[in-house]
Design goal:
Elements lengths: L2 H4 L5 H37 L5 H45 L1 H19 L3
Length: about 120
């Protein structure tokens, strides 16, 4: 009898998919803002064309390089966060399967606390 997989809270696969979808939405929101900023900066540099002033040309090249570096750093951090989230999920999933009653107790306490905070007058 595996109540954690098919209990009243839904099966483990469904919960896993919900957690993954929430993580993707959170990441997408932040990524979209940075991506929009990068795209705007690139458009600004492209609209300037080839400046006659060598200092301005050098500045445009530095800005373009900075945007490329920012995108690379964002991708690296995003993959790191995904790995860490995956590791945390695997660890919590293993804990719930190894210690189901402690997990149910912790969830009940958290639910009571959230309920008290939500309905506090």
């Amino acid at each position: 009898m595996d109540t954690m997989k098919n209990g009243p809270g839904g099966d483990a696969a469904t919960l896993r998919e919900v957690a993954r979808a929430a993580a993707r939405r959170a990441q997408a929101t932040g990524d979209m803002e940075v991506e929009k900023l990068c795209a705007d900066v690139e458009e600004l540099v492209n609209r300037m064309g080839q400046p006659a002033d060598p200092n301005m040309a050098h500045l445009c090249a530095r800005v373009a390089e900075a945007v490329a570096n920012a995108r690379r750093a964002l991708n690296i951090r995003a993959s790191l966060v995904q790995r860490q989230a995956r590791g945390a999920f695997v660890a919590s999933d293993a804990y719930v399967h190894d210690q189901p009653w402690q997990a149910i107790g912790a969830a009940a306490v958290a639910g009571v606390l959230i309920g008290m905070l939500a309905f506090r007058r």
